[in-house]
Structure of 2-dehydro-3-deoxy-phosphogluconate aldolase:
Amino acid sequence: MTPTIAEVMGRAPVIPVLEIEDRAQAVPLARALVAGGLPVLEVTLRTGAALEAVAAIRREVPEALVGVGTVTRVGHCREAADAGASFLVSPGVTERLLAAAEAAGLGLLPGIATASEIILAGEAGLRHLKFFPAEANGGTAALRALRGPFPDVRFCPTGGVRPQNFLDYLSLPNVLCVGGSWLAPASALAAGDWDRITDLARQVSGERPRALAAGQPWDDDALSSVAGEEDPGAAAEDLRG
Ligand SMILES: O=C(O)C(=O)C[C@H](O)[C@H](O)COP(=O)(O)O
């Protein structure tokens, strides 16, 4: 069944943003990230191999939840669906893009950078949005400010998010997860260094970063009590109090 964007955003604290040049990299890369605890993957349409990579991951790595990113044209939505994508990510939002995603039967995580774009997405019933490019648009301060008029909107900040600042984002009550390309450095892909990618994923996966972001000391009992919750996003919010 096609997941909702709320489900996609609640599945893992970090969504690796992937640029796959060679489709042979797709399956080992996806397996490395899943092994590191990051099952939600965004394959950007920035390379000619992207759609083939999505199809291969869908076929061979069933534990992964793979979506297509850099959706900037209406036609991308159908292409992504045909390749087997489970969701769509765009750097922006238009009414036509929203309609095309719906026609393709996939949830869209649209990028927004302004209050007007949040309103536009809201008019289509969307409350789960990508904040892009996050650092360049004011980072955590902007997200805090947007919470005033839009308290029920949840964000996936992407663009400039790094190991050094991702906890700052995850500690905000209106952030469910972050996206970033740092999990799959081009050098590691070129070298086929999948262990390095698994290590990078492990450093940011699981409930631990969320607990740390909430300023809580590591407490296995507290975390296991939320591990069984149906909605991991809600669990993360509970952790933050
Ligand atoms: O291609 C897309 O769909 C985008 O929206 C852009 C990506 O999300 C960012 O380029 C990731 O940003 P970095 O983690 O700073 O590299």
